[in-house]
Amino acid sequence: MLTVSSVNVNGLRAAAKKGFVEWLAATGADVICMQETRAEPDQLTAAVREPEGWHTVLAPSSAKGRAGVAIYSRTEPEAVRIGFGSAEFDESGRYAEIDLPGLVLGSLYLPSGDVGTPRQDEKERFMKEFRQYLDELRERAAADGREVLVCGDWNIAHQEIDLKNWKANRKEAGFLPEERAWLTGLYESGYTDVVRHLHPEGPGPYSWWSYRGKAFDNDSGWRIDLHVATPGLVERATSAVVERAETYDQRWSDHAPVTVTYDV
């Protein structure tokens, strides 16, 4: 069995002080994909940077204090790659990838965007480049006898059942028609949303709740933290759970880990 967790930590240094270290010590995951680490390796304690029993890949952004992704694996990776061959985005802390036996596994932090601003333009450029990469990756991995799994904060809710207040967000970044169509195209190309495959009905399960108001208490969330995989791995997915904190004050991020177990 292979258990993979993905979580946007909303600042790894802050999360480490609020419960991440304890969660890491208790998790049964074999691989953890993290996003929005917002830290250089030398800014992390040894217990976070190189925890015992884990092989760690840290990919900070060249823009200090922004973005950043990481992958922690109990099995030593056969290969490590940072970025996806993009002149604009390879140093932005948006993507890291490892090879494990029979599997290519990536950690993704897709830009969040903001309608009517350069941030949305950046998101669209990223999506265009990354989609091309995903197509190439699927073919390359298949030729190498590997499945593909890309986990992370995709910053797009695909369907109305993927966010609580969908009507109010139809013109907002993360639920724009063109963003949702981009995901549809990806899923029609040979990738599958693993959690939705296992939980087809909805609503949710949500993985992000704003710190504002009573969003967490009312479960007014978004499902934007995804496991996206090629068909051979999807069929081996046996369970998926969002590790939602029991109470608001027990949260160590505004996201919750999305954990999937695969029978490999």
Structural account:
- It is globular and about 45 Å long.
- The model has no long low-confidence stretch (mean pLDDT 97).
- The chain contains seven helices and twelve strands.
- It has 264 residues and is of the alpha+beta class.
- Helix 4 (118-143) links the parallel strand 7 and strand 8 (147-153).
- The longest helix is centred in the middle third of the chain and has 26 residues, at 118-143.
- The chain has one domain (2-262): 4-Layer Sandwich (Deoxyribonuclease I, Chain A), CATH 3.60.10.
- The protein has a six-stranded mixed sheet. A six-stranded mixed sheet has the order 5-6-7-8-10-9.
- Helices cover 25% and strands 24% of the residues.
- Belongs to the DNA repair enzymes AP/ExoA family.
